[in-house]
């Protein structure tokens, strides 16, 4: 603090309205605290609720004053093309809900001769969308809540926790809008030729692990047309695959104090738009996590053919591994064909083979299956053994579990399977996002949230900017990705 300089006398200014409210509140607090201390049936929760409610008006007034100051300081420049606006109309009021209640701001509107549109630069500066009038904090809250729970519940939780009242339909619409913008932002980020920014670029070459899986989602698109479609001979398809992937560095695996395995830092990709879309998302996510610097890339998935084909395609040179549990399931299928319902016999047959697969060599297991097949007469058991034997043959290069254990690599795709159990929690509950586009928006929000450690800045900018591409360019600029 400067102690020796000449004393600067502040210019006398009127105390702002929120300053008066603050003084009144402070004066009342003393009495309230005294009253609370003596009120026997009340616990601290009662005081917390009362203080939060009464402080709301102060915070609302301060937000309004701040918003007005920012609006006044915003130059009359087109937020899209930066051209100075003409035909200025100052003092245009706009009221909108903030997290502390409704505020009104007066701003200047003007005409952009280049865009041929009326613009309100203060709205862009404040982060207000052209079409939906909510403050950035309310926008973010609606997006997060709606991505975590059905909108009917989200509406109640929002009001209970923050006092913000948003009807269910409004919340649904706003969340959907945020979801669409999340997708827009992701597509823009993923399409960049340079790698997205990273919190921590690996200094030493690291091993990058990718895991891929899929889960099912039920949609009602096209809702109400089932009978008409059936008449035309088309059975409406309700269940669809959501392709999901995760990527992380091998050295980012750790254990909690209780011994539970955790991945400290990982990225996610999920889409309802097909396997090609997943490939692009996951590739972008992997680039952001050091794909370019990685000493090696390992892809782990179950046996679905698409996984390997796509992995070959986008991650050439990557080492591939069949999920260990998946391989064991195939061995168990052989066991069931041979032993029937005799569980003890099945266990006795299966256990040594599983041990062999894990600790020795897949070649030995395959040879064993061939020997078994040679002793069997033609029939369903032989057919089952042949099918599974072919499966192991096809994947034998991906069954290197002993080497994997020695290198400390994961044997299975447990990380993505856990993810595939978590994602559907929101989707397999009643809600309004039950169309293909709605689902993709919701997936976009959820994925952006899951990738928040790296893209926190983007999320904040996303929810605080207007819907235009130019604002996304601002987000990109802030991320160090401005177009060159
Ligand atoms: Zn313009």
Give a structural overview.
This protein has 19 helices and ten strands. By secondary structure, it is α+β, with helices and mostly antiparallel strands. It has three domains: 107 residues, no CATH class; 200 residues, no CATH class; 74 residues, no CATH class. It has a five-stranded mixed beta sheet, with helices on both faces. Strand 9, helix 9 and strand 10 form a beta-alpha-beta unit. Helix 1 packs antiparallel against helix 2 and helix 10 packs antiparallel against helix 11. 32% of the residues are buried. The N terminus and C terminus are likely disordered. Bound molecules: zinc ion (ZN). Zinc ion binds next to loops.
Percent helix = 40-55%
Global geometry: elongated
Secondary-structure-based class equals alpha+beta
How big a fraction of the residues is strand?
15-25%
**Order of H and E elements:** HHEEEHHHHEHEEEEHEHEHHHHHHHHHH
Low-confidence segments, given as residue ranges, are 1-8, 195-200, 454-484
Q: What do the pLDDT scores average to? A: 80
First-last Cα distance: 42 Å
Bound molecules: zinc ion
Tally of individual helices = 19
Radius of gyration over C-alpha positions, nearest whole angstrom: 30 Å
Strand order in the sheet with the most strands: 8-5-4-9-10
The largest sheet, given as strand count, sense and whether it forms a barrel, is: 5 strands, mixed
Q: How many discrete structural domains? A: 3
The total of beta strands comes to 10
């Amino acid at each position: 603090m400067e102690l020796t300089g000449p004393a600067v006398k502040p210019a006398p200014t009127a105390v702002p309205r929120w300053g008066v409210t603050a003084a009144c509140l402070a004066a009342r607090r003393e009495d309230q605290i005294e009253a609370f201390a003596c009120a026997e049936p009340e616990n601290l929760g009662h005081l917390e609720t009362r203080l939060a409610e009464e402080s709301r008006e102060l915070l609302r007034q301060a937000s309004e004053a701040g918003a007005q100051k920012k609006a006044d300081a915003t130059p009359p420049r087109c937020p899209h093309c930066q051209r100075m606006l003409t035909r200025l109309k100052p003092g245009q009021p706009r009221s909108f809900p903030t997290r502390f209640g409704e505020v009104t701001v007066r701003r200047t509107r003007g005409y952009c001769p280049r865009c041929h549109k009326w613009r309100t630069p203060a709205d862009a500066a404040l982060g207000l969308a052209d079409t939906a009038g909510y403050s950035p904090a309310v926008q973010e809250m609606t997006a997060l809540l709606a991505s975590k729970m059905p909108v009917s519940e989200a509406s109640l939780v929002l009001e209970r926790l923050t006092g913000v009242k948003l009807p269910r339909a409004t919340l649904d619409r706003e969340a959907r809008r945020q979801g669409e913008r999340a997708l827009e932002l992701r597509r823009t980020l993923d399409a960049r030729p340079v790698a997205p920014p990273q919190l921590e670029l690996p200094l030493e070459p690291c091993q990058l692990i990718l895991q891929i899986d899929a889960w099912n989602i039920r949609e009602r698109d096209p809702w109400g047309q089932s009978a008409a479609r059936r008449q035309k001979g088309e059975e409406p398809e309700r269940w669809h695959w959501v392709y999901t992937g995760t990527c992380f560095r091998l050295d980012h695996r750790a254990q909690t104090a209780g011994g539970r395995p955790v991945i400290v830092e990982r990225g996610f990709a999920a889409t309802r738009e097909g396997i090609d879309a997943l490939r692009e998302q996951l590739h972008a996510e992997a680039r952001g996590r050091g794909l370019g610097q990685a000493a090696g890339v390992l892809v782990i998935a179950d046996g679905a053919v698409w996984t390997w084909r796509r992995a070959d395609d986008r991650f050439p040179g990557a080492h591939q591994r069949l999920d260990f549990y998946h391989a064991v399931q195939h061995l168990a299928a052989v066991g069931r064909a041979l032993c029937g319902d005799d569980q003890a016999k099945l266990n006795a047959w299966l256990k040594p083979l599983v041990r062999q697969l894990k600790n020795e060599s897949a070649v030995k297991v395959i040879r064993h299956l061939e020997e078994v097949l040679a002793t069997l007469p033609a029939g369903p058991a032989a057919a089952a053994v042949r099918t599974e034997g072919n499966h192991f043959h096809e994947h034998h290069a991906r069954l290197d579990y002993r080497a994997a254990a020695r290198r400390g690599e994961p044997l299975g795709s447990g990380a993505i399977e856990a993810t595939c159990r978590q994602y559907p929690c929101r989707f397999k509950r009643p809600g309004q996002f039950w169309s293909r586009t709605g689902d993709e928006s919701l997936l976009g929000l959820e994925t952006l949230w899951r990738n928040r450690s790296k893209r926190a800045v983007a999320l904040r900018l996303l929810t605080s900017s207007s819907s235009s591409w130019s604002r996304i360019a601002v987000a990109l600029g802030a991320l160090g990705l401005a177009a060159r």
